[in-house]
UniProtKB/TrEMBL annotation:
This is Ribosomal protein L11 methyltransferase. SUPFAM superfamilies: S-adenosyl-L-methionine-dependent methyltransferases. It comes from Secundilactobacillus oryzae JCM 18671. Keywords: Cytoplasm, Methyltransferase, Ribonucleoprotein, Ribosomal protein, S-adenosyl-L-methionine, Transferase. GO terms for biological process: methylation. S-adenosyl-L-methionine binds at residues 165, 186, 208, 251. It comes from the Bacteria. Its EC number is 2.1.1.-. GO terms for cellular component: cytoplasm; ribosome. The keyword Plastid does not apply. It catalyses: L-lysyl-[protein] + 3 S-adenosyl-L-methionine = N(6),N(6),N(6)-trimethyl-L-lysyl-[protein] + 3 S-adenosyl-L-homocysteine + 3 H(+).
């Protein structure tokens, strides 16, 4: 089968929304080359299949990002390309900066699509306790408390090392005590659900609007034995969800978080946590104001580059 490759050169800030746009338009997979993924990479041996690797020897971007999507020959590219370009231009309306982005297309062989992205990914320690490991790497933990999140980034949504994902995982590390129930809204690759289980969360339900994301998440859950009992399904935010949880986490754009505030409030018990990320600095005050107006207490804010995460709590008797 012939495939068409659509490559978007843009800023690291918009890696996740651009990936979602490309998947929404029918991509069968995405490859992400993000300069920020290499910020914390150190020289070393990554698994039994590799020798000693020097960061300087790895061919990678020094700034910005390239998101490459793959489309089967059954999709007529001239029909979807204008829509993709239009949606990329609209990112600025959401307070995001795609920079002077470029969109290029070319035909590729299926074998190139299946393997080319593997050279970009190595295990990365993303928080104090959690390390993201590509599915083809054999990796042994280096400290007692280190937990692994195994992902197949080639068929999902990147490596799990984007700042918004890191902030969400850091927020989970802050609030999880063990045994809690959790809902993951907009699960994408499933990285937050897997990370939550590794931190000791009990029952986890994961939802995403996109059926492609649901399938990608399930594939990643299957790579992590700790995640075998996670329920993943397609759903529009929390519409129609009646069973609550002690933690609700959402790593999505600020504009989508706003209508989620009331839904989360209704499903959380007293002292339950609402963890949000994906909030660009221009939208931070608006999201905080919406949560406080609803009654949430802002317990902590996290920041990485231009991105914010918020740890909010539904107050109890002590507040």
């Amino acid at each position: 089968m012939k495939w068409t490759e659509i490559e978007v050169t843009t800023t690291s800030e918009v890696v996740e929304p651009v990936s979602n746009i490309l998947m929404d338009e029918g991509a069968s997979g995405v490859k992400i080359d993000d300069a920020k993924d290499f910020d914390n990479l150190e020289d070393g041996k990554f698994g039994e299949l590799s020798g000693y690797i020097k960061k300087a020897d790895i061919d990678h971007l020094n700034s910005g990002a390239k998101i490459t999507a793959y489309y089967p020959e059954t999709i007529f590219i001239p029909e979807i390309l204008p829509t993709i370009k239009q949606r990329l231009g609209q990112l600025r309306e959401f307070g995001l900066n795609p920079g002077n982005y470029q969109v290029e297309t070319k035909e590729v062989a299926e074998s190139d699509w299946a393997t080319a992205w593997k050279k970009y990914y190595h295990p990365v320690r993303v928080t104090r306790f959690l390390t993201v490991v590509p599915s083809w790497e054999k990796y042994d933990t280096t400290v007692t408390d280190e937990k692994l999140i195994v992902l197949d980034p080639g068929m999902a949504f990147g490596t799990g090392t984007h700042p918004t994902t890191k902030l969400s995982l850091m927020a989970l590390e802050t609030v999880v005590r063990g045994g809690e129930s959790m809902i993951d809204v907009g699960t994408g690759s499933g990285v937050l659900s897997i990370g939550a289980k590794q931190l000791g969360v009990g029952d986890v339900r994961a939802y995403d609007l996109d059926e492609v994301a649901v399938k990608a998440a399930q594939s990643n859950l299957d790579l992590n034995p700790v995640a075998k009992d996670i329920q993943v399904a397609a759903n529009d935010l929390l519409n129609g969800i009646e069973e609550g949880a002690q933690i609700i986490v959402a790593n999505i754009l600020a504009e989508i978080i706003l209508p989620l505030v009331l839904q989360a409030w209704d499903l959380l018990p007293e002292n339950g946590y609402f963890l949000t990320s994906g909030i660009i600095n221009k939208k931070f005050d608006e999201v905080v104001a919406a949560q406080e107006k609803q009654g949430f207490k802002i317990r902590q804010t996290l920041k990485m580059g231009d991105w914010y995460g918020i740890i909010a709590q539904k107050p109890g008797d002590d507040d």
